Amino acid sequence: MARTKQTARKSTGGKSAPSTGGVKKPHRYRPGTVALREIRRYQKSTELLIRKLPFQRLVREIAQDFKTDLRFQSAAIGALQVRRRWQGRRAGLCAVVLGGSLMCGSCPQQEASEAYLVGLFEDTNLCAIHAKRVTIMPKDIQLARRIRGERA
Fold first, then answer.
1. What digits encode the pLDDT tens for the residues 23-36?
2. Half-sphere exposure of 29 (CA within 13 A, CB side)
3. 147 in helix, strand or coil?
4. 3-state helix/strand/coil string of 60-77
5. For the whole model, what pTM was predicted?
6. DSSP, res 98
7. CA geometry: angle 46, 48, 51, nearest 5 deg
8. What is the CA radius of gyration of the chain?
9. 148-to-79, 98, 119, 132 alpha-carbon distances in Å
10. Which one, of 66, 113, 117, lies nearest residue 91 by Cα?
11. CA within 20 to 30 Å of 32's CA: 14, 42, 80, 115, which one?
């Protein structure tokens, strides 16, 4: 049986839906644009990223793992709240446990801790990129710490 060609028909132009008063969709940036903007903003800034009281509670919680009845001097709490302009070098934690109380020098512990975490996450991100991923996973943190020699 032979195929027959269809005859040309004139388009009648379908009815369009009535406009809803010109509601415009909100502008959205491409994925990753806002993240890169935030990265640049936080790299330029010098303010602390973790609030003071949550950081203080974290320090107390970590200290409980080493000694149960650990007390903090007011100077130690004051040293936790020191904010100094970061010059790109990592400061070491200079806290020494002496006789059940924590003695601190003038080093900004929170800045040092944040610098350590930022560096760890940079290395973690490199591990994820090396594995051809963009999402960091716990195994990336473990690999970064192992390469640094922090954990066997």
1. 899 999 998 899 88
2. 7
3. helix
4. HHHHHHHCCCCEECHHHH
5. 0.48
6. E
7. 160
8. 29
9. 28, 29, 11, 21
10. 113
11. 115
Q: Residue 50 contacts by C-beta under 8 Å, 6 or more apart in sequence?
A: 58, 110, 113, 114
pLDDT, tens only, 64-117: 888 888 887 766 766 665 543 333 333 333 333 323 334 343 346 777 888 888
Percent pLDDT > 70 in the chain is: 70
Identity of the amino acid at 21: G
d(CA 93, CA 91): 7
Amino acid 48: pLDDT: 78
In sequence order, the 6+-apart residues with CB closer than 8 A to the CB of 82 are: 106, 107, 108, 110, 111
Say whether 26 sits in a helix, a strand or coil.
coil
Question: Helices 109-130 & 138-148, crossing angle to 10 degrees?
Answer: 110
**Contact by Cβ (8 Å): 124, 136:** yes
Alpha-helical (H) ranges within the chain are 33-44, 52-66, 74-80, 109-130, 138-148
141 contact partners, CB below 8 Å, separation of at least 6:
120, 124
pLDDT at 141 over 60: yes
Q: In angstroms, rounded to a whole number, what is the distance separating the alpha carbons of residues 39 and 122? A: 11
